[in-house]
Amino acid sequence: SKVKNTCYLMESVEHTDGQSVLTDSLWRRYSEFELLRNYLLVYYPHIVVPPLPEKRAEFVWHKLSADNMDPDFVERRRIGLENFLLRIASHPILCRDKIFYLFLTQVFFFYSVFLKYSFDLADSRLKALNATFRVKNPDKVADRLYGVYKVHGNYGRVFSEWSAIEKEMGDGLQSAGHHMDVYASSIDDILEDEEHYADQLKEYLFYAEALRAVCRKHELMQYDLEMAAQDLASKKQQCEELATGTVRTFSLKGMTTKLFGQETPEQREARIKVLEEQINEGEQQLKSKNLEGREFVKNAWADIERFKEQKNRDLKEALISYAVMQISMCKKVGFGFSEYSRYSQSAYEFL
């Protein structure tokens, strides 16, 4: 059986003299976008790299299809991938990356460059810290809201059946049942509209993982710095003990000295010389790691500040639009219930 894959057409357009000219056009699979993002994570550890949309539908309410080949899901993922590229293109540093340019313009050379860079040899400790945990059976608000709306469909059916056996108040009951049915069916459109805003919020849910990756990289650099300082202090202590002939703490070397006697002066001088060379190398390494850590913090802090401005702007726009949608929904629901109340009241007057 043939394996079905979804490919996305990428078109690069150049705007010159008020005209749009198509410069490049090629097809990419989702896995190729993953390659690009992994490369960016490795070579720009201080940057909050934009996230990719879901490869498989994981955050869905039960009415939406979780099939990867579902047209609606494919379209939503296409929008997410396009947004991923736009985020990179608008980033002041990532937009100038050579690999990103090749990703947009060339098909085969793109693969050869990835093989050359061998970016998969990333710090395995980052992957060990990258485990995420997810609740297997989350309590979804959308499912509960869906149930609340749909139960009103039962009321609509009751009113409709009731109207069939009533003569004088049948019209009022029929109209009341109709408005209950309209209310029950409105949840489908509501949740579909909410899915659009959910995609925007999910992007920043995945952004949180990118932000954690920057923090984890800093923690690993700090750990390496502490280990280098500890190793340097240990070598200095060994050198001092050899020079003075005293052992401060219990050690295997001190025990062997007591068992087999002291080293000859020549042996001691040779060991001291080796330790002094190692101490010089350790001091240079410690200095280098200190500078590297400070540079990382400086660059990471600048990019996090840029990310915070972007986040505040995007989430503000999304939440305002969501609030407008909720207000419109509440107005429709309020109108439906007022009509239901009017027709049901006219029906009850006959009782």
Automatic annotation (TrEMBL):
Disulfide bond as UniProt keyword: no
Q: Which named protein is this?
A: Sorting nexin 4
By its UniProt entry, which Pfam families does this protein fall under?
Answer: PX (PF00787)
Q: Which GO terms describe its cellular component?
A: early endosome membrane; plasma membrane; SNARE complex
Q: Which UniProt keywords apply?
A: Membrane, Protein transport, Transmembrane, Transmembrane helix, Transport
Q: Which family does it belong to?
A: Belongs to the sorting nexin family.
InterPro entries, per database record: AH/BAR_dom_sf, PX_dom, PX_dom_sf, SNX4
Organism, by scientific name, is: Propithecus coquereli (Coquerel's sifaka)
Q: Which residues cross the membrane?
A: 99-119
Q: Which GO molecular function terms does the record list?
A: phosphatidylinositol-3-phosphate binding
One BP annotation, GO: protein transport
Q: Return the PROSITE patterns for the record.
A: PX
Where would I find the PX domain in this sequence? 1-110
Q: Does the keyword Transport apply?
A: yes
